Inverse folding.
């Protein structure tokens, strides 16, 4: 038996190809949306991977440092270093900043890291150019997507930093490039007041008799110094000794240090379920809407194509064609349209993904799932046209 | 093959029930022998189309009896369970317009019926080509319907109606869209094919040009048929 659907498609290939291209662009958008979601999740995972940490120690009762703000004294890490199973512990701060570059601002996440030997948590793990930060102040390593050049001097708050290294795929959970600077500089940058505010504060302190006691001459200077310094960090990143179970170390930290401790799995869950959850829901809704729109378009096209073949269908039924042959013809055409659309969509998505400002990750398995989803949508979309075709009376082929 | 043609006895068709019932056929009797071409003529609303649809197993007669060849196909009810297969294997159709499938070439338009009956594609196409040759359109075998003239299309439609060698062919105004010369050619072909394949052919027509060609004519009026001898000119 010949393929009626195939013959019809070959006969009116222009109609099918152009419709398929239109549908394909829609499928391309759908695949890209799925890729954007995957990219967000991947950014979050990469951010966690790049820390090199097994545990995140944060302020008690918070879900920091990414989903909530968290403050810890910067000497907490010393007590953690002495706990069984801990190999490294390092302070870290995170600060979202707009860093000026070439006349425009680059949205970045400034990360304060402790210098140390390779493997210290928080440090960028792979550099594509330059070196790691070796000095305690005014050196920076930036992700290559920031557009900064090696040796360039960038301004963060009041200070200029020399870019000594470039890293790759070191991004925040929302895709912003990271800029790594020494922890002391980051602590200062995080709470640095402007000069006017400092003058105001010092004037108030000087006028406060509690701080400015004639009998204690060093008190005012000490108060001013304490208000200008920042002894807090956002989290302590802990790397465990090989073979140590994260929960075995996290439990005593929670109990005896009265700190909040998250394992990798828990931190990933916080990022995916809380930080990017709303974006993910938006994208999911978009995917559903696009799927419905695609289904409606396929259904409308197939219905219209079938409507144009009513007389032929009546003749086919009159000469003895089985209902399932006619239904198969319509369904195969719908599926063919979906396949054309999917191929066009996959190609266009592959071509336009690099120009997206965000990281878009097109997973092969998502494409496979998308392909089957398109097939299911096309099968469902053909139902209306099939119902209409099956209702066609073969008597319509006979006049009168 | 042809067999004993078609015989219809007391065929009735009623639409609706009770006071609003319409009796479209009130007891039609017809008999067409194998190899014979008869005309069925009548004014609009006389029941021609209803009779054709009943004969074509497209609608259910209310009562009566139909015998196709040696087989009783209707006796106050259909005897065959699968009317679709009955139409495919036992009844050929030729329509007012050719209604060829636009996306199939000439050969496949004709070969489609045997293919639907489960005959392998190659064998079905060979049967189709044999008929196309008999109808002198074999040179257009690979053409699409839109590339054919009206007369060629109608010859292909006749080939499609004949390809399964049905005992009966129902032709619904097959010459309506054709000029006199082509109309006569189509009637000539139907007569030739009827004789060659021993097929009974019923031609429903209004066409004054071809009415004199029938040897027998059934007039239908108010749901009842009356048989009369025709002139039978030109096709002895």
């Amino acid at each position: 038996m010949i393929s009626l659907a195939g013959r019809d498609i070959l006969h009116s290939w222009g109609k099918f190809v152009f419709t398929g291209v239109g549908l394909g662009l829609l499928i391309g958008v759908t695949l890209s949306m799925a890729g954007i979601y995957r990219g967000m999740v991947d950014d979050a995972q990469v951010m966690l991977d790049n820390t090199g940490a097994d545990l995140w120690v944060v302020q008690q009762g918070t879900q920091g440092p990414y989903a909530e703000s968290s403050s810890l004294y910067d000497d907490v890490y010393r007590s953690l270093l002495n706990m069984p199973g801990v190999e490294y512990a390092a302070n870290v701060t995170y600060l979202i900043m707009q860093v000026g570059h070439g006349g425009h601002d680059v949205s970045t996440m400034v990360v304060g890291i402790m210098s140390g030997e390779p493997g210290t948590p928080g440090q960028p793990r792979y550099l594509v150019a330059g070196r790691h930060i070796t000095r305690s102040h005014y050196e920076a390593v930036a992700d290559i997507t920031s557009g900064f050049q090696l040796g360039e001097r960038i301004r963060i708050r009041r200070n200029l930093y020399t870019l000594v290294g470039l890293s790759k795929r070191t991004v925040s959970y929302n895709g912003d490039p990271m800029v790594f600077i020494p922890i002391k500089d980051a602590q200062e940058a995080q709470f640095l007041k402007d000069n006017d505010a400092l003058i105001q504060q010092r004037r108030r302190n000087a006028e406060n008799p509690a701080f400015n006691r004639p009998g204690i001459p060093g008190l005012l200077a000490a108060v001013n110094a304490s208000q200008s310094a920042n002894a807090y960090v956002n989290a302590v990143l802990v790397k465990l000794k090989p073979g140590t179970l994260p929960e075995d170390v996290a439990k005593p930290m929670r109990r005896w240090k009265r700190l909040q401790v998250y394992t990798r799995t828990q931190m990933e869950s916080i990022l995916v379920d809380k930080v990017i959850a709303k974006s993910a829901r938006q994208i999911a809704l978009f995917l559903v809407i696009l799927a419905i729109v695609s289904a409606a378009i396929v259904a409308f096209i197939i219905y219209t194509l079938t409507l144009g073949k009513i007389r032929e269908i009546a003749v086919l039924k009159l000469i003895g064609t089985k209902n399932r042959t006619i239904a198969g013809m319509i369904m195969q055409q719908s599926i063919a349209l979906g396949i054309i659309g999917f191929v066009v969509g996959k190609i266009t998505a592959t071509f336009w993904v690099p120009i997206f400002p965000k990281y878009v990750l097109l997973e092969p398995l998502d494409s496979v799932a998308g392909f089957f989803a398109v097939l299911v949508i096309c099968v469902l979309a053909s139902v209306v046209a099939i119902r209409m075709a099956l209702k066609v009376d073969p008597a319509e082929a006979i006049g009168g | 093959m042809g067999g004993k043609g078609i015989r219809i006895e007391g065929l009735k068709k009623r639409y609706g029930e009770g006071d609003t019932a319409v009796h479209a056929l009130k007891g039609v009797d017809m008999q067409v022998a194998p190899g014979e071409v008869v005309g069925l003529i009548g004014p609009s609303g006389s029941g021609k189309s209803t009779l054709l649809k009943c004969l074509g197993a497209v609608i259910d007669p209310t009562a009566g009896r139909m015998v196709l060849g040696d087989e009783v196909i209707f006796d106050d009810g259909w005897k065959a369970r699968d009317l679709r297969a009955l139409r495919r294997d036992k009844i050929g159709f030729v329509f007012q317009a050719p209604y060829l499938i636009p996306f199939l070439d000439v050969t496949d338009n004709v070969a489609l019926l045997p293919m639907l009956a489960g005959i392998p594609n190659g064998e079905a196409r060979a049967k189709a080509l044999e008929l196309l040759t008999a109808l002198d359109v074999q040179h257009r075998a690979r053409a699409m319907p839109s590339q054919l003239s009206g007369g060629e299309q109608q010859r292909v439609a006749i080939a499609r109606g004949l390809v399964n060698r049905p005992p009966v062919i129902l032709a619904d105004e097959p010459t309506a869209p054709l000029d006199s010369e082509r109309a006569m050619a189509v009637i000539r072909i139907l007569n030739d094919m009827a004789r060659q394949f021993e097929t009974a052919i019923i031609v429903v027509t209004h066409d004054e040009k071809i009415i004199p060609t029938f040897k027998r004519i059934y007039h239908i009026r108010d749901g009842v048929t009356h048989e009369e001898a025709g002139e039978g000119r030109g096709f002895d």
Notes: The first strand of chain A starts at residue 55 and ends at 58. Chain A touches chain B at residues 1-2, 4, 7-8, 10-12, 311-312, 315-322, 325, 393-395, 397-400 (CB under 8 Å). Residues 13-51 of chain A form the longest helix (39 residues). Chain A has a mean pLDDT of 89.
